Amino acid sequence: STMEETDREAVATAVQRVAGMLQRPDQLDKVEQYRRREARKKASVEARLKAAIQSQLDGVRTGLSQLHNALNDVKDIQQSLIDVNKDWRQSINTIENLKDVKDAVVQHSQLAAAVENLKNIFSVPEIVRETQDLIERGELLQAHRKLMDLECSRDNLMYEQYRMDSKNTHDMNLIHTYFGDMQKLSEELAKQLWMVVQRSLVTVRRDPTLLVSVVRIIEREEKIDRRMLDRKKQTGFIPPGRPKKWKEKMFNILERTVSTRIEGTQADTRESDKMWLVRHLEIIRKYVLDDLLVAKTLLDQRFPPHYDIFNKLLNMYHQALSTRMQELAAEDLEANEIVSLLSWVLNTYKSAEMMGNSELSPEVDVNSLDPLISQNVVDQLLSKYMSTLTSNIIGWLRKALETDKKDWIKETEPEADQDGYYQTTLPAIVFQMFEQNLQVAAQINEDLKAKVLLLCLQQMNSFLTRYKDEAQLYKEEHLKNRQYPQCYVQYMIAVINNCQTFKESIISLKRKYLKMEMEDSWSSSHTNMDTTLDIIAKEGCSSLLDEVFMDLEPHLNELMTKKWLMGSNAVGTICVTVEDYFNDFAKIKKPYKKTMTIEAHRRVVVEYIRAIMLKRISFKNAEERKEGAERMIKEAEQFRFLFKKLAAGSGEDTEGLCDIIEAIAEVIKLTDPSLLYLEVSTLVSKYPDIRDDHIAALLTVRGDASRDMKQTIIETLDQGPSQPNPNYVPIFKEITVPTLTVPKLLK
């Protein structure tokens, strides 16, 4: 058994321990000592064991007694429950009969509330009167406090009624009617608030506390709105007139005020004032800037931050401006008005004079502002502007030319510029008009400026063609009656000078307004204009020379005649006439005047040689030949002197022209006929465009060459070499020699 096993183990252990103690002989002496020690140990262990067993037994005893008590308690509870069950079954009927008490309690609480409200209910008319007075005196905060009390009374009564009997609309209406005046009060107070809001930008400067009161009232109402809406979620009841949404209304009022403010700035119409739009836009600019500065510096502080009042106002102004600008853009605007509008919308609005004002930043960032009118509307306005401008420019140019033509027939000389050159006001008028339109276009943008410049040049091109035609007509009219117009020469000079002015003005316009990249689209029209101007000037100069030669005709007809040989003063008269004309021609500008002088010189010489070739005289003898030749040489000298004087300072060398006359004179003067061939061949080698008929005519005038001799000379000449002066411009090719016709023989 287990017990025996335990004993065996105990003995074995004891043996082992004793053996351990008695290892050496001297330890045997201590056996008694060892026995006593072991006996003590054993006694101690036994005592501990006894104590442990005792406490175990105590615990078991306590546990048993508690279990016994618990059992008794359970029995008691079971009995009590049986009793309660019995009582409850008996009292069910009694509870049924308590409903009346419950109703009485509800009624009692309502009556208590009614008694509480009676004080308020009876004083409603009086409070309404007091509130009305407060509103009239402008004491809005106190008035609102009373209004809130009234509304609170009504709402509580209605709520009680609703709770008691939500279907009873009759009683609800009764309460509503009784408090009817209160609704009017609320409207009356609101009207006062909106008046303050409308004038908020003025009020904030004069009476900021009034504005603060209004904001406080609106905030109170917002809070009540929120409370009522919460209660509605829970109970389904909301008093009449709620939510009032006064904050939303306040913003609507502000929005209307801003719109009215902007619309109301148009004081004039086009009929009453040509500058109506400029004024209108300037007033808008000033008002909006002033309002926003006040809003930023003063108004912002009077409103709670969550109202974000400045940004809201900024948006309202932007919207109202956008609407107004679109309305204006839709009107039938004139060209200058379109420019005013676009310049304001595209430039002024975002400039430092308005939204870009440093005092408005950083709240206003011009880069994030939307455009006031869409690109589409801008494009429509620009294209309307261009088409209006086109027809305007055509009209202006036509009118300018008509006005200029009226001057051409005046009996007074044209104006002269500071250097004494004749001119009319035409170029100045035309280019002043171009300048104005370009400066206007530049206000909008570079692109428009470029378009206007090209438009001006295109119109200028067609205008110059008309100018050329008008100058031609002017000349033709004058030829019908040379007495008229009286100052034809002076006005023709003015037309020629205008060509030079036009050229210079075109260049200066180009320099001032033309971008490099537009050069191509410009150059062809520029070349065209220059060509047209040169033609006008050239035709003008040529018509002036025609004038001179028409006056010279009778005197030219006298040359190389008997009368001439006898000593007429035809050349003297020719020189005086030419010089007289050239006093006027001095008023022609440099490049054209130089051409005129050369051309006049050339034509005089041509006419003189033509007179020789007309064979009006045939010298009888050497004496006459000598006299005639010397006269020719002297007259060539007169011409040379005259044209030197006229060309003074132009550095033009036309000496060679008069040399031709002298060379011809030498052929006529020659006394030895055997040298005639040599003299003629020298002449031909110098002037290779001399034809056979010229030589024949020349020999006829000499008067001593037989037909055979002429024949021989002419035939021999054909083989001769020529050595003309490299600067020689052929002159003989334009001189025809008359052939004898029948009428001539009959004369």
Automatic annotation (TrEMBL):
One Gene Ontology term from the biological process aspect of the record: exocytosis
Subcellular location: Cell projection, Growth cone; Cytoplasm, Perinuclear region; Golgi apparatus; Midbody
UniProt entry tagged with the keyword Protein transport: yes
Record-annotated membrane-spanning stretches: none
Recorded GO MF terms: SNARE binding
Cross-referenced Gene3D superfamilies: 1.10.357.50, Exocyst complex component Sec6, C-terminal domain
InterPro entries: EXOC3/Sec6, EXOC3/Sec6_C
Any Pfam family matching the protein: Sec6
GO cellular component: exocyst; Golgi apparatus; growth cone; membrane; midbody; perinuclear region of cytoplasm
Domain of life (superkingdom): Eukaryota
The family this protein is said to belong to: Belongs to the SEC6 family.
Subunit organization: The exocyst complex is composed of EXOC1, EXOC2, EXOC3, EXOC4, EXOC5, EXOC6, EXOC7 and EXOC8. Interacts with EXOC3L1. Interacts with BIRC6/bruce. Interacts with MYRIP. Interacts with SLC6A9.
Name of the protein in question: Exocyst complex component 3
